[in-house]
Structure formats: structure tokens, C-alpha cells
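Re: your question about Lipid A biosynthesis acyltransferase

S., sorry for the slow reply, the queue was backed up all week. Below is exactly what I fed in.
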Amino acid sequence: MSKSKKENQKLSGLFGYGGKWAVVVMLKVIALLPFGCLYFLSDVLYLVIKDLVKYRNEVITDNLIHAFPEKSAGEILQLRNKFYRYFCDVSLESIKLYRLSEKELKKRVKFSGAEELNDLAEKRNGALLLAFHYNNWEWSGALQQELNCKLLMVYNKMRDNEPMDNFLKKARERWGGEAVQMGRAAKVSFRYFEQQQPVLVGLIADQRALASSPMWAVFMNREAAFFSGPVKIARKTNQPIFFQQAKRLGRGMYEYSYSLLVDKPAQTDDREILLRYIEKMEEVIKSNPEYYLWSHKRWKHKRPEGTALIQ
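Result:
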């Protein structure tokens, strides 16, 4: 590579990194806005992404058509627009988490079912919590304040954007939980388990897995790959698995509830655990579909030939 090309690459990287920091600074300013201003901004953003940008319009529409084949074109359009409106709210609420005060948190967030979760986690040396991209999943990290044990929040690191990754990590750990990269989740979980320190491992487990995953099942009328890690962790430790449901009570108001999904994973088939999780997700999504993350390319991969479908 020539000297000039190397210099151009360094210059591009410098400006690129600077640009990412500039975005984070802007997000920190947005996080300072009161909720009234935040939702005014959301209303403006809604018109921009719906009518001008048409953010992932084809992806969203295609996902909704497959998930709800019984709905008419008009109903799909209406549902897509409802999603756009909520997507703007939840995006700005996630930014607000960086500066959300404890007073605002207590006014806007409720928890139910944490008592059983605490009890079983203490008796069984920990527990596993399966959540998904429905309603405001970012604020659910405040569950740490209701727990008698440590909350590990498993996440995917943004490898090409360190400033943004640091911003999100700090926001997520605001209430005392520990954000752990997905690649380290099993190691950290087993370390707590071996030290007899109860820990709740929280995973947003509906993310798109690689096509090479051995776990494929039908989710919202389409074949989808799932990560096998959560099931492996639960079966090895035999810790109970809980399901998180987020209910929207109003704009910026949520209730997070927790129910036991699998009591003894070591005695439960891998496939049964996954199917129970999918069944609960579908039940919640169908009740208010606009609150699911339809812009995600969840069904991008195709099941490889020879990989069995769990059913």
C-alpha cells in the first residue's frame, strides 16, 4: 500500500472516530431533555422516518405480512405506522436512560413477580431470565434495584463504534447491574455459580443467531435460528428460567412482570425449553404487535439443508 493511501486511511479513521464521539455528545444532550421535550422530538422524528426516510420500510412490511397473513394491506400499513410511532418513543427513551433519575424511574416503572424470582435465585444459586425486543427492554435493567443478587445483562458489543458502545454500557449499568458481552456470558455466569454467589443472568434471547446454529424453530410463522447458549447455561446449572414481559401502561410508563418458564432445565429437553420461550413471546406479541422490533432483520438467514427444525 502506498504512503498516500495509508495517510488517507488514518485521516478517514480519525474523522470517523471523531464523528462517532460527536454523535455520543449529541445523545448526552438529548438525555438531559425533560420528557415533554423528548416526546415532542419523538413526534417530529416519527414524521421524518415514516414519510421522508421510510426507515427499513420494506423489511418492516415484509416481516408484518409474514407474521400476520390474515391482515389486509390496509391493516398492515396501519400496524407499520403504529410501530414507527412507538419505535421513535422507545429509541429516545433508551437515550434518556443515560440521565434518568431515580425519582423518575420510580414514577414510570413498576415490577411484579420479582419476589418469586428472588426466592428461587437464592435457593438455587441463581436463575436465568429470558427477555425479548418488546416494549422498552432497555429500562428493564432497573430490576437490579428489586433483586437480592447481581443482575448480569448480556449484550452484543458494538465492535466498530467504541464511543457508542461505552455510552450504552454506562446507561445499562446505571442501576447497579453488570453488562457482559455475549462471548463472555457463559464464563462469567459459571464463575458466579462455582463461587456459590447467586446471580440472575438476563438475556434478550430473540436476537438473530448464525445460520449454523443447531437450534431452528418456527417463530411468528417463519423459520428462525436461535442461540443455544441460554439453554446450555440453564441445563448445566439447573437454575430456573424466568420469562420477562414488558407492558406499556402509557407513554413512558411500563410494568415488567416475571413468570417461571422452566423450573428444572436439567430435566427438560432443550427443544421443549425453546418452544416454551417462543410460545410466550408469540402470545405477548400478538396481543399488541406494534411494540415488537419489526425493523430487525430477524428472519434474514435460511435454514441449512440437514439442520432439523424443532417442532
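Strands lie at 109-112, 127-131, 150-155, 178-181, 199-204, 215-219, 222-226, 241-250, 253-262, 309-310. The radius of gyration is 21 Å.

Happy to talk it through on Thursday.
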